[in-house]
Known about the structure:
By secondary structure, the first copy, chain A, is of the alpha+beta class.
Amino acid sequence: MTEREESPTEEQARDARFVGSARERREDPALLRGEGQFTDDIDAPDASHLVFVRSPHAHADVVEVETARAEGMDGVVAAYTWADVEASDAHGRMGAPTERLNGDVPGHPVLADGRVRYQGQPVAAVVAESPYLAADAAEAVAVEYDRLDAVTDAAAARGDDAPTVFEGCPDNVAASGELGDEAATDAAFADADRVVDLDLVNNRLIPNALEPRAALARPEGDRLRVDMTSQSPHGHRSDLADALDVPERDLRVVAPDVGGGFGHKGHHHPGETMAAWAARRLDRPVKWTATRSENYLAGAHGRDHVTTCALAFDDDGRIRGLRAETDANVGGYPLGSSPLLPLWYGRLLAGQYDVPAIHCVTRSVFTTTAPVHSYRGAGRPEAIYVLERLVRRAADDLGMDPAEFRRRNLLPPDAFPVETAAGATYDSGDYEPALERALDAVDYETLRETETRDDGRLVGVGLASFVESTGGGFESGVVRVHPDGGVTAFAGTHSHGQGHATTYAQVVADELGMNPDDVDVVEGDTDRIPRGTGTFGSRSVVVGGGAIVESAREVREKAARIAADELEADPGDVELADGEFRIAGAPERSVSFAAVAAAAHGSDRPEGMDAGLEATSFFEPERSAYAFGTHAAVVAVDPETGEVEVDRYVAVDDCGVRVNPTLVEGQIHGGVAQGIRQALHERAVYDEDGTLASGTMADYKVPDAGHVPEIHTEHTVTPSPTNPLGAKGIGEAGTIAAPPAVVNAVVDALAPYGVDHVDMPVTPPRVWRAMRDS
Amino acid sequence: MTEREESPTEEQARDARFVGSARERREDPALLRGEGQFTDDIDAPDASHLVFVRSPHAHADVVEVETARAEGMDGVVAAYTWADVEASDAHGRMGAPTERLNGDVPGHPVLADGRVRYQGQPVAAVVAESPYLAADAAEAVAVEYDRLDAVTDAAAARGDDAPTVFEGCPDNVAASGELGDEAATDAAFADADRVVDLDLVNNRLIPNALEPRAALARPEGDRLRVDMTSQSPHGHRSDLADALDVPERDLRVVAPDVGGGFGHKGHHHPGETMAAWAARRLDRPVKWTATRSENYLAGAHGRDHVTTCALAFDDDGRIRGLRAETDANVGGYPLGSSPLLPLWYGRLLAGQYDVPAIHCVTRSVFTTTAPVHSYRGAGRPEAIYVLERLVRRAADDLGMDPAEFRRRNLLPPDAFPVETAAGATYDSGDYEPALERALDAVDYETLRETETRDDGRLVGVGLASFVESTGGGFESGVVRVHPDGGVTAFAGTHSHGQGHATTYAQVVADELGMNPDDVDVVEGDTDRIPRGTGTFGSRSVVVGGGAIVESAREVREKAARIAADELEADPGDVELADGEFRIAGAPERSVSFAAVAAAAHGSDRPEGMDAGLEATSFFEPERSAYAFGTHAAVVAVDPETGEVEVDRYVAVDDCGVRVNPTLVEGQIHGGVAQGIRQALHERAVYDEDGTLASGTMADYKVPDAGHVPEIHTEHTVTPSPTNPLGAKGIGEAGTIAAPPAVVNAVVDALAPYGVDHVDMPVTPPRVWRAMRDS
């Protein structure tokens, strides 16, 4: 891997000792030794185990649920149906943005309230002394269903003949919205030299975290503690408090080690909620752990957009306007804000380009499939896929090199901050260097001239230039100095693989002139952290890091006042490094940080200063930080079989100041792997009865190492002005850029056959058929 | 019980809805139902149990410790001696203020390091699968001792023939100090019309908390969690971190329900420390629970002052000066700051009086007895006992009524703040009303004229006017508003019976215009609270309450800004009551506190305002608040047997603003009961070999209900300017006032016999002997 370090901002960053350093992850030793403590690893004395009875049907009335036989079985503690929940003091539904939906739609009930709306929906729950006894007893619950017609496709669900998912929402359109200026866009299209259009499917995906979702709920004093696989412990506490109708302060949510999330561990699902409900009812610990199959069936899915789109441009390659109309599948129930999420995807439709007019119409549509919610990227991959496929199509239409087409439309570095026609305001950017580096690194010119390899496979190179909005919402950060000088930093984000403990410790260490090893980082416990928004949307370093930096600076300022008092100097004259405060120009006079910490908690504080040495910040950037980059994929397509191999992959990313380059690259590698697999393999498939056909890892095709190419990473550094670290998020870049880069490469390879599009996943049959049909 | 409510400050307090209200303790229902969770109640999976082998000798060299037989017994996990601790990475000693002691004195080792210095000192420890197996195995540990001479009396330990406790401190004087002005006092004594003197013993006491000390130490992730009977969880975390040589951040100390403390649960003892050391070493939970006998033998004792004192005064009753010289027994080891504590007792020697000159010399002396440290009152009872006994003696010398003698010397209400000749600065006071009320309530004039009752018993009335320094050090307080409007208040103090959850909730409720039931209070967990000093020295409401009020006010101010924004009003114009913000003069416009809380965590905040609704304060009063009062005891003495009965007791206290009068009275009742028992019954007795003769409840004579008289309480209210509540502490008043009040009453009863003093405890033989010998 090449790493070029030449930007002036990187130069400045060298002042920092640890920010910018590729330190090893402090999380790894325990995980590699098998000492991680994941939710299902937690032993609670007297724990019972909850297993769901799930609907085999996508759409049906539940006529009768008979639990008597199950209740009589050995080791069974209880069996519950909706009637039990309804009779309790909890309303038992996942929150939904009711007032913002088209129609009267109830929240997802923890157990079916008389109807099921997707295969796998929980209908009853059995609690037993072991998970095996519970599973056996769940088999013994008899449910009588009256089947109804299924509908799995969003566009079809809007049709007149489609079954109605909710009576209060007869057309199945949960929510709809538009972005941009329709009249201006119409005018641009009318005036432009050329228009290209595409019908695109952003294939439905299923998150495959290493660890399935799980929860262990148990009474803790008068309160309830829920350990769970969470990306957002405070968010889940709010969700659970809502569903259980208890005050938030009576709940403690703890997220221990979490093995991946990709979004679905930030959502409010029935499993965790039912475990919490049952633990309160039984006054004993209840554990629920999803099987891998249950995660496929009933964990929130992602993507599933069907889009008709068009790009208007002139003969010189200048883009004039963009139109998109999307049906987004939200599945059988709203899950939190899931129906509203697709309405905002269009905000990124300008990408890196100066697009004068944009109009985007989106409908979120109920179908009888599992709920769909944000999945790594959460709208950004959908937008960039539309844009970058159109860009390629337009370049081909003009016969212009796609790189050159991009160059002609890039927003110039002096344009920032800039508001796009899609309504997004970009903070900073310098796009062309990343594009040129990607071209250089992939040996673009040579590839453009190569049609086939020696083995006869067709060669293609595809580009994707993208922006990624990162760092929304607020986060709390506490930096606490103990009397012995040790430091603990608390953040409301939660690492589920990101390595925040490593990153945040580097950040605090620089601010407090100490070694990262002397900084503890705490996340994932609502009892220890003021408030958290969580880890998603590439926000943690930007927002959580920002909060921690603000607190660390406040701590440093107070510490400096104490040190100055001790050294009989002006606070402005003391410098902190290597655990010592020194007077500038008189380095022999010093006081240790530990002595300052002791003084802050003792009686040697400066007159009038409060005791303690800690600070709490709630940081929220005024606007999002827009990471960007250009990725290039090289594919080889077997003309005999249609099989596509990604041969090489170049990722040039700019996420502003990089706190830990190794972790940044890890994020890029993982995202690219996921993006390539979306492009080539992954797809949730429902049959027409609404039965999930891709319900196992083998059927669904998760990425494996053999299918991930060598990934070459480079970077530029354009700091963000939105946060004290100058950082931009990097968690989703790969999933955004890789799908269009790979599909563009396939189209490039198939150019001799006149193929202008192949839908994702680009499987051999589809390629073969496209070659044949063109 | 009469309660007069007529002071103007009480009038002002009626503005507050809940401060001043005698609400029931929210702690009681669970405790009364047996649902309290005390340390020994906690079940930890795989817990092992630690039992000490304790020295039967007061002073001996430990020649050999043989643990092999114990280690071979069923269920024994390990047996440890000092050699194991010494070879570990922990220094294993209780901290001591080494540099401030006279000589080279090591800290108390968790296991004997070659010598034992008090009966009951831990010599070895056995860990086994059950406490019974551990106790059996401890019996099997063979220890060979080489006995040395014991010395149990502080004055004797200073003698030339006394055995040396520490070689580095040959005269056994651990520390010494003086207060006041010797020359001025000498001059006052030379110039005064009269001088009286007394030799006084403040008898050695042993704390008798309902719950003995206990600890359960267990690994929690990479850290160690120690649940323990603590008055000061953060203080104990610092102590444990020190003894174990680990960073504070690697320890979590939790104090669950704690059944009384009286000081000794704030100290750093071997038991809790050894459990923590063993849990780290074994990497499994280790529980240690003191037996009642062990608490007698080796829990820190209290008092044990021997004082020679004198008062100089003029014929008109005006006090001219006071002298005191004290030997304070600190036992066989320093325990934290224990040798320094007695050096400050003299600060209260002026009491309520204008004493122009004071000189006090104090020596803390090592003896071969259990360590002595602060016990409810912690120096205050010792000082007031000296003063009030001298005052009585002086009045008798003059033939003046003791109440009149006091009146002539009281500091006048316009004197405050005032610095006494003993170096204390009193914040506020109005002493005469409390004195007069006490006289009135006890029917003083009648009693003064009564020599005997109809049953022939001698009647006596005794007074004690006192001040009590309260509220030292800092405390942290967090007030956190959750998004649903619920409130949690966190304080660094820890209730071990005081009812802080009730009190603090009242305080927060008034500040935030809500009901106390909607305020949760959290104490006792170092992971949830920024930093704590603890509950002792009558400081919790003053300092912890002050910190919580400061935070609540900051929260209210921010909430008002949000409400004003919502109501389009000026923040100064919105009022908060009953959970609603309203505009003054336009009550129909309102926004709920819960809606404001939601807005603070959402996106509807006023421009530029940080998210969140919480505040953290570190509050430290600039100086102590001095509570005061006058107590009166009425005794009947049987001239045949010398038996003393306290017939009636009047307590008039002024602790400034009283947050919850019921809890204030509870503190007075408990303290008076303890004080009466010190006066009449309690005493730790060592024989000349240093064997504790009073090692059981029956031998030691703890208070029982039958010996506690009717206690009549009244109060005045002189707010303290030192803290936002205007409160003064009340936790120790009874233990301060009751001993001199009772002894003065006994002397009053025995006046016909010419008895001018009887030492505490005033037992029948002593009374009988005094009557005979006078």
